[in-house]
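I hope you will forgive my troubling you with a question about protein structure. I set the record out below, with my sincere thanks for your time.
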Amino acid sequence: MELYVDHVMSRPVETIEPTASLRDAAAAMIRHDVGALVVVDDNDRLEGILTATDFVLLAVEGELPPDEPVATPMRTDVITVERDAPASEAVDAMLDHLIHHVPVVENETVVGMVSTFDFTARLGRSLEP
């Protein structure tokens, strides 16, 4: 039986507006215990992504002004996967682009997130006796 992205992804996906501050983004990541936020417009269309790794890089570079809008450091070259795609497509995207989070889209709307954690958890469950 083939495994599909829909079977592995986390939902609902945690989103944030591009005008929100980095302080608000960090608080949202902590509150929701997630490693990435999808940046969406008013119609829930994907505009970018902000990850915990991005925060680390900003901190190392000394460029972490808490009131800066999310739109400034967010990545706009977001790799996505369709909800009905084979899960192997998401894994390949993560490996090819060295990323840990891939937003899941359906009809150009973000419907979930698949992460390395999701795959690890799925693998762990499959190994249970």
In short: The two ends are 19 Å apart (CA to CA).
